[in-house]
Structure formats: C-alpha cells, structure tokens
Write a structure and sequence with these properties.
Number of helices: 12
Bound molecules: phosphoenolpyruvate
Helix content: 40-55%
Largest sheet: 8 strands, parallel, barrel
Strand order of the largest sheet: 1-2-3-4-5-6-7-8
Radius of gyration: 17 Å
CATH topology: TIM Barrel
CATH class: Alpha Beta
CATH architecture: Alpha-Beta Barrel
Order of helices and strands: EHEHEHEHHEHHHEHHEHEH
Length: about 250
C-alpha cells in the first residue's frame, strides 16, 4: 500500500527562529492527523540542523529543497547530499519547477543528483509539471512523460521505492489557481500508467504521487479524494501550522 504524505516546502522563507517555531507547532499537532498520513517539512539549508533537533523524537521527517550534483569539493555555494544526511534529512526535493526555471536544473543534472541522494541514503521527492503554455498547447502529457522518463527510467525498481513524485503544474504554483481535481487526477493516472509501462504494476501501485500547486485546506479534501492523488506538496500553506495540519486532515 502506498503512503499518504503531506510535505511542506518552505522555500526561501522564515528566519531560523521562525522555522523552529513552525516545526514545534507542527510537532505539537501531529497527533491530530490520522496515523496513516506522514508529514515531511523542507526548510531552507541554514535551518536544517535546528529543525532536525525539534523533529528528532517525532514522526515528522526532514527534507532539503535541493542537493548538489557533485559529491564534494570545489563547488562554491553548493550543499552535498552527504551533508544533508549529516544534518538529519531523510529526503531531498529534486527538480522543483523553481529550480528548473531559475537555476538551469535539467534532467542531466537531476540524474546525477538523484544518484548522489540514493548513495547517501536520502529519499527523493521528484517534481514534475508543465508550464501554462505547454498545457494550452495540449503538450502537458508529453512534457510530464519526458520529465519522468529522462530521470526515473534509469532507476531500478528498488530505487523507485525511495522516490515520491510530486505533480506540480507550474501555472498553479503560488498563483492561487489550483488544478481542478479532474485535471489533477487525469495526469496522476497518466503518471501511474507511465510508471506501470516501464517498471510494472508493482512499482506503479506503490509509488506515492503528490499534487502541488495552491493546495490549501479548502481544496485539499476534493483533491485527496481522487484515487491517484496520494497527498500534497505544499508551498505557501505549509508556513502556517493550522493550514498545514488542516491539509493533512483532509484525507
Ligand atoms: C510548491 O512550490 O511546491 C507549491 C506547491 O507551492 P504553492 O503551494 O505555494 O503553490
């Protein structure tokens, strides 16, 4: 049975003190969500060790938002997967559309990052999703299929057990416009079918596929009721304890 997950991507928000408070607030309310739902938070790099300390005796897992595509050495400004593991991370997000759009993240780099994440015992939240013009041109299925095949098809079924996919249509991220549950379910089912065709039904059935893009307590219930939507990757609404917990209570 695949896991139900709600993950909070804090992006470049909060001071360390605010992040610690946010994490404490989430931990304090984690028993208000169903046992079958797992929570992950992804603070900025500078907050990881402080937030790890808050999460240490709780079921809430820690994620980074990115990792380097090199193992170590002269790569100024980068943070290696081994360092994230050392800081207490269980996960890293990879391929977020903001990384793809502003920092030249492409499939070639993502393949290297993914390998380093696994070598260092990290699981990966792998983001895919089309831009508005790609959807308007009817290319969203092709775009998502390429993002998946270029990075995930080189993995073994065993490695796929450490991958969560987040479908995040770029036009819905931070815009207040959410994909309708029909639009989201359609592409989640397509992603699962794409996984099944390459890896077989077992991998496809066991892979958690999250929806991301202006998800909030008021729309999470309808989205999470869809058969192929296993939770959410949450940006803005993950910065407020009650909203984040409210979304996790929406299953
Ligand atoms: C995200 O960036 O992962 C995201 C889903 O953002 P938001 O919820 O703010 O749209």
């Amino acid at each position: 049975m695949r896991k139900k997950i709600v993950a909070g991507n804090w992006k470049m928000n909060t001071s360390i003190a605010e992040g610690v408070e946010l994490a404490k607030g989430i931990v304090a309310k984690v028993n208000e969500i169903s046992k079958g739902v797992s929570l992950i938070v992804a603070p900025p790099f500078t907050h990881l060790t402080s937030v790890a300390e808050v999460l240490k005796d709780s079921p809430v897992a820690l994620s980074a938002q990115n990792c380097a595509d090199q193992p170590k050495g002269a790569f100024t400004g980068e943070v290696a997967a081994s360092m994230l593991k050392d800081a207490g991370c269980t996960y890293t997000i990879l391929g977020h559309s903001e990384r793809r759009q502003y920092y030249g993240e492409n499939s070639e780099k993502l393949v290297r990052k993914m390998a380093l994440a696994f070598e260092n015992g990290l699981k990966v939240i792998f983001c895919v999703g089309e831009k508005l013009e790609e959807r308007n041109e009817g290319r969203h299925f092709d775009v998502v299929a390429s993002q998946i095949s270029e990075v995930l098809f080189g993995l073994t079924p065993k490695q796929m057990a450490h991958v969560i996919i987040a479908y995040e249509p770029v036009w819905a991220i931070g815009t207040g416009v959410t994909a309708t549950s029909e639009q989201a379910q359609e592409i989640h089912a397509f992603i699962r079918k794409t996984l099944a065709a390459h890896f077989g039904d077992d991998v496809a059935d066991n892979t958690t596929i999250l929806y991301g893009g202006s998800c909030k307590p008021s729309n999470a219930k309808e989205l999470f009721a869809c058969p192929d939507i296993d939770g959410g990757l949450i940006g803005g609404a993950s910065l407020k304890v009650d909203d984040f917990i409210g979304i996790a209570q929406s299953f």
